[in-house]
């Protein structure tokens, strides 16, 4: 209550309480605290990056491990399909969209 009355009296008189210029100690403390906050922020960001990379590697490894049977079956199916095409006289170039197929036109007159 007393503090409020003093502030009211100061406002009426037009006096303003202004702090003086910061001392050398205050400036040094501000620089040290600012530098410490930068170092701590950088360290925290590095830890978070390491955690994110570790989690990504762990999840990727888990998915790779769990899908190994599926990949094996897909490779086997691809090999069987290729063998069937070779037996049927067809050739397919991997990576291209070119396929040789025998064509017999039975509607042509001899």
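Q: What amino acid sequence fits the structure above?
A:
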């Amino acid at each position: 209550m007393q503090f409020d009355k003093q502030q009211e009296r100061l406002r009426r008189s037009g006096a303003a309480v202004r702090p003086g210029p910061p001392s050398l100690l205050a400036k040094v403390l501000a620089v040290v605290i600012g530098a410490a906050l930068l170092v701590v922020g950088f360290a925290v960001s590095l830890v978070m990056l390491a955690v994110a990379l570790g989690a990504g590697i762990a999840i990727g490894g888990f998915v790779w491990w769990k899908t190994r049977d599926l990949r094996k079956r897909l490779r086997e199916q691809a090999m069987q399909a290729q063998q069937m095409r070779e037996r049927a006289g067809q050739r397919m170039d991997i990576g291209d969209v070119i396929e040789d197929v025998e064509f017999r036109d039975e509607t042509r007159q001899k």
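Q: And what stands out in the fold?
A: The radius of gyration is 39 Å.
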